[in-house]
Amino acid sequence: MTHSIIFDTDPGVDDAQAIAIALRHPEVDLLGMTTTYGNVDVETATHNALLLAELAGRKIPVAQGAAAPLIKPRHAPPAHIHGANGLGNITLPTVSGRAESRCAAQFIVDTVNERPGEVTLVAVGPLGNLAAALQLDPTLVDKVKGVVVMGGSIREGGNVTPVAEANMFNDPDAAARVLTAGWPLTLVGLDVTHRCVLTPAHMARIEGGQGELGRVLAGSYAFYRDFYQSALGIDGCCPHDSCALAWLLRPELFTTSRGHLSVVTEGDAEGQTLFAPEGRDFIEDRWSRTPLVDVCLGVEGQTVSDWIAEVLA
Ligand code: RIB
Ligand code: CA
């Protein structure tokens, strides 16, 4: 089965790994990439998306999107994790392509309306572009084939605060709109991405299999690996964004639960994703009013990690 996708991204080291999968996997028809601030500023995200497609020898539309959160002040990009250039501060080839003149939200609305029922939105950064697309055309909820979001955390705790995952924390208001919009949505959060580790051996295979793109993936990985060693004490990195594509292409490797999501948008818990399993009664029904979605709670982590390397080797 071929999946026609729009990849919404803030590349970013792990985004780049996922973009490489989207560019190379035979079952993925990459209709375009939309960029957002998050790991980097949106201009750098756009540059990196254009570069990665060119390194893979592909002409893929890239539409620039959100430069800041919907409401809260923007946090500085995590240069200590992804590098100031978003790709581990390695020297990068020049980019010849240019972004679309349309903004990300318009590109999403146009593309989904051209192909009703066929397009899956795969979002692996803060969710401002999807929120803006919903604002532009609320009927999108009935026209997308599905939405896959890398973000959130149900039982795992947070990675930027004790309870919040980065993409949700970066724009909790956009997340609240996107995760409760009523479209078919699967959340791929830290509960599963933290069970996957892309090891140096995996990356050596990837570097050997991807030419100049492999050099960029391996060089940026080296920077990211240092952060994971110091922050989490693991030798490798969690391939967060590739897990979103792993769920789409190999769903049998994941276990999901259906229920109601809500996002805390202010206070100490801002960015926390609250999950009420379908049918569970709580003291009030306010956590069970939002449309049903699926959240990933389990994964065959080693198999997913090996699959990523296999796809890119
Ligand atoms: O929390 C992990 C997520 O935040 C990933 O998408 C990573 O690229 C960063 O954007
Ligand atoms: Ca990302």
UniProtKB/TrEMBL annotation:
Pfam families from the UniProt entry: IU_nuc_hydro
Cross-referenced SUPFAM superfamilies: Nucleoside hydrolase
Domain of life: Bacteria
Annotated Gene3D superfamilies: Ribonucleoside hydrolase-like (3.90.245.10)
Domain Inosine/uridine-preferring nucleoside hydrolase residues, every copy: 5-303
UniProt GO MF annotations: purine nucleosidase activity
The keyword ATP-binding is assigned to this record: no
GO biological process: purine nucleoside catabolic process
Keyword Hydrolase: yes
Keywords (A to Z) from UniProt: Glycosidase, Hydrolase
One GO term describing the cellular component: cytosol
Protein name in UniProt: Nucleoside hydrolase
Organism: Halomonas icarae
